[in-house]
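Batch manifest, entry 17 of 40.
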Amino acid sequence: MTGQFQRENTGEQYLRMPTTYFYPDLPYAEYYDTASWSWVEELEAYTEQIVSEAKALMDGGETFAAYMKRTEDRPQGNSHGLLENDDWSTFDLIDSEKPIADRVKLCPHTFGAITDIAPQCRIPKRAPTIMFSLLKAGAHIPPHTGMLNPRLICHLPLVVPGDGALRVGSSTRVWEKGKLMVFDDTIEHEAWNHSQTDRLVLIFDIWHPDLDEIEQAQIAALFHAVDSY
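Output type: structure tokens
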């Protein structure tokens, strides 16, 4: 690990609280400064093409499904009130690390930009993720934490009506169309859209930049072993 990033000193302390897996000794921040990441500008240049594909999906009646889906194979709570609630809905291009072929065909520029440019996180059955995320007018995603700290979450804002924001820990930022936001979702975070129209972002995940290739392979192997047990 390079020690490239340190935690932001933003006042109130928010710790990482992954719900599934914690990789120790990784430096962390609420939001990450992407200025030195050479791939970011290249990806942002695809924004208008990605917006066009996303709008074509919605105009064509493609189904955005509730992000939190009911499952029958494990106990499941609804503490956030979002279970099967389409206030927050997604159109996924990948399912359990495998591309969904008919959806990828509808979004070739989107899928190609992410897979060719971004340093995608690859963890068996858990990553990578590529999805369009729709937050309805007036909707609020309550505070919660993500699963895995070896990955970071990326938002590429596509349709930003204003009067909405993403809070990660003690830092709150507004979405700007075409400006990538990268954050650690194992820190408590929430989002809201207080505008009169829906907000749309593209979400995908990347490896934490302080993990080298050997560490990445070891993490992937660990989850493969767990799933094979």
